[in-house]
Amino acid sequence: MENRNQSKSIYFLMLLVPLFWGGAFATAKHVITEIPPLIAATLRFGITGIILAMIVTFQKEWHWKAIRKHWKSLLFIGLIGVFGYNALFFTALKYTSATNGALIIAAMPVFTMLGSVLFCKENWSNKSGIGLALSLMGVIIVIVKGSLSALVSLSFNLGDLLFVAALLCGVIYGLTGKSIIQGAPVMLSNTVMMLSGAIFLAISTVFEGGWDKVSNMSLQSWFEMSYMVVCGTLIGYVIFNKGIELLGGSKASMYLNLTPIVATLLAVIAYGSSITLAQIAGMVMVLIGVYVATFKTSYIKKKEMTKST
Where are the domains of the chain? Predict the structure, then answer.
């Protein structure tokens, strides 16, 4: 009964992930105007890892046997899911536009679903495929603001290749995360993942420099960093990892298509940006696509299981 309730609630909890990550994307834009991107990422995941370590210590959940057994896998997911994705993502922004990057990253659920079918033996569902295609089209409309000329005039460069590499890291994280997370307690695995990823990020900042700028960060940036730590990372990653564990990588990644919607709406509310009717239509397409690919397929599977028993 408890597992069934968890499976039901995770669909709604997963809605918090794009909400928090969309907000983190918006706040990060300001933070990296004051400190270098890799240092911002190091602070974000380093502080989160320390907080998680304190929680695990307080709860006396340092299961060293589990760490010794799974340390290679946990280190790998920290390297790919935290360091690889974030280092490549932020570095790519130096060489290409956010629009190009958003369009490339938007393809993550597609490749995660294909990878799940090819390598993880997940069953292909026509409804999932339709929902995925619909939400992807919606994301593209939102990003290019419904302008076909903007989509056609896109040019690609080194930064786009780095975004593709970040996309690959995200897909690998989505595909391997389920088996790795199931092998160790959730809070413990998240702690090791965050700390290891932060260490790799910290090492990379040696080449970038700029730690002296941290002491001059404004109060606004520290407030935004706190939001990224608590909501975007501490809560967001824990929920997303739980979603991967319960739903699988393909369904969990579907919720990432909602992130551009949140980022766009926050830009409208907080910064007075304009929004077009085409973007609103794209948002509706994304919502319908995510609903079809997750809730509908889940209902049908349960119905089929009931009939078979």
Answer: 18-303
